Amino acid sequence: MRPADWLVLGASLALMVLYGLWRSRGSNSVHKYLLAGKTMPWYAMALSIMATQASAVTFISTTGQSYVDGMRFVQFYFGLPLAMIVLSMTAVPIFHRARVYTAYEYLEQRFDAKTRALVTVIFLIQRGLALGITLYAPAVVLTVILGWPDHAASVFMGVIAVLYTTLGGVKAVTWSHFQQMLIMTLGLAAALVCAVALLPSNVSFLDAVTLAGAAGRLNAVTTNVNWNDRYNLWSGLIGGMFLALSYFGCDQSQVQRYLTGKSVAQSRLSLLFNGMAKVPMQFFILFIGTMVFVFYVYQKPPVLFRPAELERIEGRADFAPVARRHDAAFESRRAAADRLIQARRAGDRALQQASLEDYRQAQLELEAARRQSVALVEKAGGPSGVNDTNYVFLTFVTHYLPAGLAGLVLAVIFGATMSAISAEMSALATVSMVDVYRRHFRKTGSDHHYLNVSRGLTLFWGCYAVLTAQLVKELGSLVETVNLLGSLFYGGMLGVFILAFYFPRVGARGAFYGVLAGEAAIFACYRFTDVAFLWYNVIGCAVVIATGLLLSPGQAVRPDLRRAG
Amino acid sequence: QPPVLGAWRRLYAAVLGWLLFLIVIFYLFTRRFTP
Q: pLDDT tens digit string along A398-407?
């Protein structure tokens, strides 16, 4: 990092935070602090929805994933536009008409206080578990890449996010997201242009795409039917739709974004824009990872992208043959890539086929050397199965991007982390205030009192995020488990909202026990089957609906609370 | 109002069409560059 990088990083973050605070002045009532006074235009909500979902892990992990596994992860998002249409038709008009602050408040209107309390507790556990990890995951990578002391990155990002979220409320969150998305677009475009521009002068863009495809990195659509395969067209369309329905329809950190809209139409437009822009955006981010892969076809990559683990094994005698194997594979892959490009240009089919075989063989050899070094790390007393996917993109950015641009890309990572946790802490504070404090502890306070409680709860969840991010390191490999546990709750939540919207004869009893049965089914799938996680929500949701219908013989509810516009 | 409801339906259809277009483009992209 050079002075120009620090300058760009600092200026970008300052612009994002100060713009958010400036636009949030006058948030002096609960309605303005938690719902922006319902004044938000569709484009601000749309970018806020996208910024909330795009945490830093989206950038560093997704680019790393396409480097090692190709672009098939893009299919995970194919169900999202379908979910946006369904939510525009149902959740948006229903929530607007119910005049609620949170999605769970509506459940009491439709069912009863018990169901609202159950789903509120599920949300607080789920988001509470995820909040510290959202801050920790990128911070640990940034700490290593920037050479900062432990905890510095998470405290730095956490404190700034807590400050502007507590001071400005949901308006500050939304307008800082607006800036963050503009910075993100600039930063990612710069990263892609640089990855292609830094290739040798004899390698054109089309050559680079050919080389990425030859290594199997451009597998954007895979049509195989396999229940245990995480990402294919079908799991993406069906499983991805259910996950998006759960996340955007039942998770307050997203529902709060479109509840701030000035009308049903504005909120709908924000979701539909997200539905149209999200898939191309993810394709673009994954494509950057494939271009970084091609960059490292010509520029020797480290055997491992995690510096600390590489240092651990570099001095060992048994590392020398692994390093030689890696270097030889890199050289033969580069030579095969050159032959492949020349054969393609000359139209020589036979040479093209032969050099393609050599290229793929060298790639397999390179991957074998990397696996050997991973085993050596464990042998040397390091972590087992060390994964360096999250370090690939930032290593490229900090080592090869020109001065200033590296700072811009890092501003994207810092900003994305702060955007994600600010939305989450704001949502947690809203639910704690509306669904817990105002519902169960003090029902008749003044607006000023509730505003102060909202600020206090935002500060509480912010401090909780920073503190738990410091403790996450002690969890070690449990982090993934905690993250996965959070995603296991979505199916039950989605099921109860589907019951509320579409099954008027289902009453409170069916909804309450339906959620419990749905969650039990999901945990059973997780514990006893190999079904890919994208299907959990579908299964859990089906169990909630079936249980709800079984327990509700012909009850009726107030029709004004369920009719969609 | 009915005329506006029709406009929303056209917008939903446009989003569906856009998704279908992207899937077809990505599929052709995969077929073209994955030997």
A: 889 888 989 9
